[in-house]
Every structure is written in structure tokens, then in C-alpha cells.
């Protein structure tokens, strides 16, 4: 079995205001070998009636993942690197609890296959020290994978934030979102 | 050791003990007070009783988890409702489609399905043959004055006969050989996947992914070895073949409750999940306030609100609604809107 070479210095930074809705990430995501040619990333219009704004969503890899907690089959686990993996295929019973409980709306249920699938940050690549597929092709750097120093140099007026509030629930994540300087948490109302 | 006893789950322990005792009682009844029990199979019996105890214990602990408990209760509630007949028939149909034939795996990959089907069918048939034999539920005899007809007894009652040397006898006495061939073919297909699929290579582990395949292969090959020995070697290596086969099978039985094979028992929950979805949609769908589209049953959304609270997650908002009222797309849009507002308030969208 190949040795794992996960680079803990590298991190994922998302800035959905930079998303231009080109869907290049979707195409690239389907190339990730852990997905079996299914695209796991989400690109959708935020409110098509009012705006052309699109948003892009990868799995945020929560510190205490709601998806794993609500899974009745113990099919979702977080590894030592903080990566929350796609459902264990032998255990997943396709109940969709994770799909509905994820506060970021990430997991997908493959209906016929009775299986939940989601982004695992291209584990086949990141575990070998490479960047996730989506981040390598994003033309506007709405998706960026690199070191904290790199992103701070590139975005001097922004700060990576990995704390969110959904209702009364605070959620901390491995993946960060780029916010205006001085922000510590993104509150979703 | 003290910690082991302190952390034991009492409910599960009681249920597991009952299940193990029931097996022993069934052995005593089926073998007519051990009259027809084959002492050569005692190690297999002990392994099976341990496996039953372990599986019952783990299953019981498993269904005590809040989400699993809810699914279990709901499944029973929906099955034994006024819709019992259609739901029962639906469950039977899905049992054959998804449990016996694992049809859903075909949508995860055709070769994978074929490999898994061969593996699973080989194992199920092997269990169907070996468990009744090990428990003394079934035995064969020759009657005085007739040395060409074999009589089959089930639970001590005569259940049929066949001529020695007949095609039926050949098929029946080589039942485990056919099972070994199916399992071996399945293992080869699954091993090939694990050696060539980049995604699997990145995520697989030895204990959960390779060991089960190696163990099944070892059981099949040593089992075939017994047959090979008495067919072609005149029993010269019988002792070696029998002992190695017993070791691999007992390892399998002892490991059954702990490792990957436990999914065989967890998989049945898929039937409950299907029933839950069916009854949920009959009761009414939840409509996302953002997309204005139905996305799940209202029962499911309401149950999840309860489960998340039980698990110390509180997605409720000040206005009495919940973040969980939104569909996945609605949640992604809510996040993007919040991000947009934060950027707008700062006066800079980029940088």
C-alpha cells in the first residue's frame, strides 16, 4: 500500500464571491478517482430571479461533523488529518440523514446506488501531497489550496475564517472561507 | 480488564447472552439431545456460539445510538401499521432485490456487483449448508439392508432420500466446493479492483478491506483442499487440510462481530430506511423556503431536528424556524447570501 504523504501545511480556502459559475470545478471533480467519475462539488445560482451570482460549495470538513453524528450506520468517519470521508460503501444504507443534516448542504445521495457520496478533498491526491482537482482548475481562485502564507499574501484585505453559526449552532471547519479583515465568524441567518 | 467490565453495555450483554443460550437450546432440540451432533464439529459450534453472542451484542449497542434507534423504532412502527400488507410485501421484494441479489451494487459498478454477488452467494450457501450440519440439525444415514440409498434427517425427522452415486448426491456432497468456487471467483474480482482502482488504493486499509478478502480466500482454498485430498490424494493430507480449514473458519467466526463482515447484518437496516422514505412521502413532503421545491419528507426533517438536539446540535433560529428547514441547495444559498452581505458591509467584495 502506498505511503500517505498528507501535507498538513496546505489548506483549502473558499471565496464564493469570486465564483463565476464556469463549472470547471465540476468537470475536474469528476476526475477525482475516489468519486468514481461522479462530480461531488456544488455550483448553483444563489437566487436566479434577482442575480446571476453563483456559489460553489465543497465539503468544509467539520471538526465535529453533523453528518457523521446523525449517520445511523456509522458509515462516516473523520481521519487523523481532519478529513471527513465519504460514506463507507459497505455500511451506508442510503437513508439521507447526512444529506439533510449537513449545515452546508454538501452530501449527495446516489438514489439507485443507495449510497451517500461527498467531497473528501480529493483524498487520492491530497494524501499524496497534491492539490484537489477543483482548486487546480478554478480560473478565479474561488477555490484555492495552498499555505496560509500564500493566501494572506494574495488577499491582504481578507482573512480566512473557519467558524460558522447556523441558528444557535456554532460549526468549526477544516476548510476556511475568505472574509473581510476583522471577521471571526460567518453568521448564517 | 476492569475497564472492560465497567464499559460493558448491560442491555446488550443480556440480549447477547439470550441469543447465545437460544442457539445452544436450538442445538439440543435439533440434534435430539446431541444424539445426532457430530463431535468433530465442536470447535465450529463454539465459534458459531461466540459469533452469535458478539453479533447480538454489537447489534444491540448499535441500535441504541440515537439515529439508529429512531430508524429502528420508525421502521417497526411503519411496518406494523394499517399498511402492513403492502409494506411487508415491499420489504420482502426489497429483501430479495437488495439483500440476496445486492442489485443496488450494480449502480455502483457492474463488475463490483458481479464480484460481490459471487462472494455473498457463496457465503450464504455455505452458511446454509454448514450451520445445520454443525448444529446437528441435519444428518444422513444408511438403513440396514440398503447400502445404496442415503436418508436425510432434519431435526430428527426423515426428510428425503437419494441414491449414492447419483447426480443429486454428487451435487449435494460437493455443495461446499461450489460455494468455494463462487467465493474464490468473487474474491479475485474484488482483489483486482483493490489493486487497480486509484480511489480505492488511496482510501483502503488492511484490516477493513484486505483482511476480509484474504480470510475468505483462505477459507475457500483450504476447504477445496479437503475435497482435493479425499478425491485425489486418498486422504493422505486430511489432518493438515482439516486443521488449517478449521483455523481459518474459526478466525472468521470470531472476527465476524468486530470487522467488516458486520455489514452483512447492518445492511438489513436499508429495508427500514426504504420503508421510512415511502411512509414519509405518503405523510407529506417538506418544501424548502428558498427553492420552493419538495426535497424530503416532513417526517424526516422533523425527526432530524429531534436527533440533532439529542446529539447536542442546535440549528434552531430565534424566529422558531430551523436551518434544517432548508433543502441542501437552500443551505448553500443561505451561506452564499450571508457571505455576500458580510462582503457588502465591509465595502470590498474582493481583495
UniProtKB/TrEMBL annotation, chain A:
Against InterPro entries, the record matches this protein to:
4Fe4S_Fe-S-bd, 4Fe4S_Fe_S_CS, ET_IronSulfur_Cluster-Binding
For this UniProt entry, the molecular function terms from Gene Ontology, in alphabetical order, are:
4 iron, 4 sulfur cluster binding; metal ion binding
Domain (4Fe-4S ferredoxin-type): residue spans on this chain: 10-38, 50-81, 83-112
Q: Which Gene3D superfamilies match?
A: 3.30.70.20
Does Metal-binding count among this protein's keywords? yes
Keyword list (alphabetical) reads: 4Fe-4S, Iron, Iron-sulfur, Metal-binding
Presence of keyword Iron: yes
What is the protein named? 4Fe-4S binding protein
TrEMBL record, chain B:
UniProt keyword annotations, A-Z: Membrane, Transmembrane, Transmembrane helix
Return the InterPro entries for the record.
NarG-like_sf (IPR036197)
Show the stretches that span the lipid bilayer.
12-29, 41-59, 117-142, 162-189, 210-228, 240-258
Q: What is this protein called?
A: MFS transporter
Q: Which organism is it from?
A: Sinomicrobium weinanense
Amino acid at each position: 500500500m502506498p505511503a500517505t504523504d498528507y501535507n498538513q501545511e496546505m489548506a483549502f480556502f473558499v471565496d464564493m464571491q469570486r465564483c463565476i459559475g464556469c463549472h470547471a470545478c465540476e468537470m475536474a471533480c469528476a476526475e477525482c478517482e475516489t468519486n468514481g467519475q461522479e462530480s461531488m462539488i456544488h455550483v448553483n445560482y444563489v437566487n436566479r430571479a434577482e442575480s446571476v451570482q453563483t456559489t460553489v460549495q465543497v465539503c468544509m470538513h467539520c471538526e465535529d461533523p453533523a453528518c457523521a453524528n446523525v449517520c445511523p450506520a456509522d458509515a462516516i468517519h473523520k481521519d487523523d488529518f481532519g478529513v471527513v470521508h465519504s460514506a463507507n460503501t459497505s455500511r451506508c444504507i442510503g437513508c439521507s440523514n447526512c444529506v439533510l443534516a449537513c449545515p452546508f448542504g454538501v452530501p449527495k445521495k446516489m438514489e439507485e446506488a443507495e449510497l451517500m457520496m461527498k467531497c473528501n478533498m480529493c483524498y487520492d491526491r491530497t494524501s499524496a501531497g497534491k492539490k484537489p482537482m477543483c482548486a487546480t482548475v478554478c480560473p478565479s481562485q474561488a477555490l484555492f489550496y495552498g499555505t496560509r502564507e500564500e493566501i494572506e499574501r494574495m488577499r491582504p484585505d481578507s482573512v480566512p475564517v473557519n467558524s460558522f453559526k447556523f441558528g444557535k449552532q456554532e460549526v468549526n471547519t477544516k476548510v476556511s472561507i475568505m472574509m473581510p479583515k476583522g471577521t471571526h465568524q460567518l453568521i448564517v441567518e | 480488564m476492569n475497564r472492560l467490565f465497567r464499559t460493558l453495555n448491560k442491555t446488550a450483554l443480556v440480549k447477547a447472552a439470550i441469543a447465545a443460550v437460544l442457539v445452544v437450546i436450538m442445538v439440543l432440540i435439533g440434534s435430539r439431545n446431541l444424539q445426532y451432533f457430530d463431535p468433530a464439529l465442536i470447535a465450529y459450534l463454539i465459534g458459531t456460539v461466540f459469533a452469535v453472542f458478539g453479533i447480538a451484542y454489537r447489534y444491540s449497542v448499535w441500535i441504541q445510538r440515537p439515529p439508529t434507534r429512531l430508524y429502528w423504532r420508525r421502521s417497526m412502527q411503519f411496518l406494523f401499521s394499517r399498511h402492513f400488507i403492502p409494506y411487508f410485501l415491499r420489504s420482502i421484494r426489497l429483501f430479495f432485490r437488495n439483500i440476496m441479489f445486492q442489485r443496488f451494487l450494480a449502480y455502483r459498478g457492474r463488475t463490483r456487483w458481479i464480484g460481490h454477488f459471487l462472494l455473498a452467494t457463496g457465503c450464504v450457501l455455505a452458511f446454509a449448508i454448514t450451520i445445520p450440519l454443525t448444529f446437528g440439525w441435519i444428518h444422513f444415514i444408511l438403513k440396514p439392508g440398503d447400502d445404496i440409498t442415503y436418508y436425510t434427517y432434519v431435526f430428527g425427522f426423515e426428510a428425503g432420500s437419494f441414491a449414492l452415486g447419483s447426480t443429486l448426491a454428487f451435487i449435494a456432497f460437493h455443495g461446499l466446493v461450489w460455494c468455494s468456487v463462487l467465493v474464490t471467483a468473487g474474491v479475485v474480482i474484488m482483489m483486482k479492483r483493490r489493486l487497480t482502482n486509484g480511489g480505492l488504493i488511496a482510501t483502503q486499509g488492511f484490516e477493513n478491506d484486505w483482511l476480509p478478502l484474504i480470510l475468505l480466500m483462505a477459507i475457500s482454498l483450504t476447504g477445496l483442499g479437503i475435497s482435493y485430498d479425499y478425491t485425489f490424494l486418498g486422504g493422505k493430507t486430511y489432518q493438515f487440510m482439516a486443521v488449517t480449514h478449521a483455523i481459518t473458519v474459526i478466525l472468521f467466526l470470531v472476527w465476524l462481530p468486530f470487522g467488516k463482515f458486520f455489514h452483512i447484518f447492518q445492511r438489513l437496516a436499508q429495508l427500514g430506511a426504504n420503508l421510512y422514505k415511502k411512509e414519509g412521502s405518503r405523510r407529506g413532503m417538506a418544501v424548502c423556503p428558498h427553492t420552493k421545491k419538495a426535497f424530503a419528507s416532513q417526517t424526516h426533517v422533523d425527526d432530524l431536528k429531534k436527533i440533532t438536539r439529542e446529539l447536542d446540535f442546535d440549528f434552531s433560529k430565534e424566529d422558531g424556524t430551523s436551518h434544517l428547514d432548508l433543502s441542501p441547495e437552500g443551505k448553500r444559498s443561505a451561506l452564499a447570501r450571508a457571505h455576500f452581505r458580510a462582503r457588502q458591509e465591509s465595502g470590498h467584495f474582493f481583495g
